[in-house]
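Sequence design from tokenized structure. All designs in this work follow the same two-part layout: the structure record, then the generated sequence. An example of the structure record is given first.
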């Protein structure tokens, strides 16, 4: 007999699931769990590739300026690399926060509002970030001090 049972204190049963699982259709929690593992592995590759290119190649951190970013965003490869990293990271983070909200918020209405707010914020940031990456125009901020290759490209 444990010390808690000897004193007459019982450990409460774990909470039951909020909504009963449907016999038909997919299991959202299972797919969320799978997504977290798969996106986590892919994010490690994307983030370390991003850090290696930005910090180790060329002039390192001293070479990162407007021209460097403009040069990266001129390449469809780097545009898609950064957009994929953005999408995966935001969905991964929002799904993790959704799990925390589901675990700790007990009031159904509050939980629903918080989960909706998470997904709306993530969706807004995904749309905004994707627009920035694909509509980036380095010629808008062109000044006389800009890099020579940028002046030639925008002329």
């Amino acid at each position: 007999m444990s010390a808690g049972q000897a004193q007459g204190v019982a450990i409460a049963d774990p909470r039951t699931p909020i909504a009963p699982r449907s016999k038909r259709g997919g299991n959202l929690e299972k797919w969320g769990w799978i997504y977290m593992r798969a996106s986590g592995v892919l994010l490690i590759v994307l983030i370390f590739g991003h850090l290696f290119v930005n910090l180790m190649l060329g002039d390192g951190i001293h070479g990162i300026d407007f021209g460097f970013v403009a040069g990266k965003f001129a390449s469809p490869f780097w545009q898609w690399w950064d957009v994929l990293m953005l999408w995966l990271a935001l969905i991964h983070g929002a799904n993790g926060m959704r799990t925390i909200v589901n675990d700790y918020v007990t009031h159904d209405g509050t939980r629903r509002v918080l989960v909706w707010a998470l997904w709306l914020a993530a969706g807004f940031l995904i749309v905004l970030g994707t627009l920035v990456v694909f509509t980036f125009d380095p010629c808008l901020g062109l000044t006389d001090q800009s890099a020579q290759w940028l002046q030639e490209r925008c002329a």
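The chain is about 70% helix and 0% strand. We note this feature because it recurs in several other targets discussed in the main text.
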